[in-house]
Amino acid sequence: MINKKGISTGGILSLLTLALMMxxxxxxxxxxxxxxxxxxxxxxxxxxxxxxxxxxxxxxxxNDGDTRLRLLSITVKDTNIxxxxxxxxxxxxxxxxxxxxxxxxxxxxxxxxxxLTITVKTDKGTFTQQLTVKG
Length: 135
Hints:
By secondary structure, the chain is of the alpha+beta class. It has 2 domains: 1-37; 44-134, Immunoglobulins (Immunoglobulin-like), CATH 2.60.40.10. 21% of the residues lie in helices and 46% in strands. It contains 1 helix and 8 strands, in the order H-E-E-E-E-E-E-E-E. The chain has one helix at 9-36; strands spanning 44-52, 56-63, 69-77, 82-85, 90-91, 96-105, 113-122, 125-134. Strands 1, 2, 3, 4, 5, 6, 7 and 8 form an 8-stranded antiparallel beta sheet that branches. The longest helix is centred in the N-terminal third of the chain and has 28 residues, at 9-36. The termini are far apart.
């Protein structure tokens, strides 16, 4: 059977099937494509920190997002404490890294507890949180 435009019913059904299969394939593959193209949700958490030496702070950062993050800079601040670092390392999704931050102002004395504001700038955005550190 041929319609007036010259396309058979079988041809129309074939085109509809092709469009349906393409849509289904894209829907199934989209999570994998997001990971391949590094286009997922970005999230970073500072899980812990401790004092190393007199003026160095070691911070554990966890990438709990869906995309790789490149760390551009880290700053820590409190009333009498400041420090920064530019590690330039990358963290893959689901992994953690320890980075050292040198304190340029003040120090955390042994036995004291300080709540620091930690700001991490990455290629995917800036993440800020508060973390309690014991000296």
